[in-house]
UniProtKB/TrEMBL annotation:
Pfam families: YfzA (PF14118). Keywords: Membrane, Transmembrane, Transmembrane helix. It comes from Marinicrinis lubricantis. InterPro entries: YfzA. The chain crosses the membrane at residues 21-39, 71-93. The lineage of its organism: Bacteria, Bacillati, Bacillota, Bacilli, Bacillales. This is YfzA family protein.
Length: 100
């Protein structure tokens, strides 16, 4: 019975949902970019391009064929996923009683 209450509290408090949905939508957009070979036009020679062209984003971390998408995926993974996990854990293990 206690486990069922935790699951219900987890589903009711949806503070983890926006970060998770944002990450999934961004990944779907990147998949469309990859399938259609369409890519935003980034200026050449800036810091973003130099970081994207490092060996980590061209050889090691390559979920996409474009290094720019790999860099953006790494950035959004580092920023959105921990937020969603922390919010989900807080919603699950919070001692606060829900009123609704």
């Amino acid at each position: 019975m206690k486990a069922a209450r935790k699951i219900i509290r987890f589903i009711r408090s949806r503070s983890w949902l926006p970060a998770t949905l944002a990450f999934l939508v961004i990944q779907l957009i990147f998949i469309v970019f990859e399938m259609t070979s369409w890519m935003p036009n980034f200026r050449e020679g800036n810091v973003f391009e130099r970081v994207a062209e490092t060996s980590f984003f061209t050889e090691s971390f390559t979920p996409y064929s474009k290094p720019e998408l790999n860099l953006l995926t790494a950035f959004f993974t580092v920023t959105l996923i921990p937020s969603a996990i922390i919010s989900a854990l807080y919603a699950t293990f919070s001692k606060k009683r829900s009123t609704s």
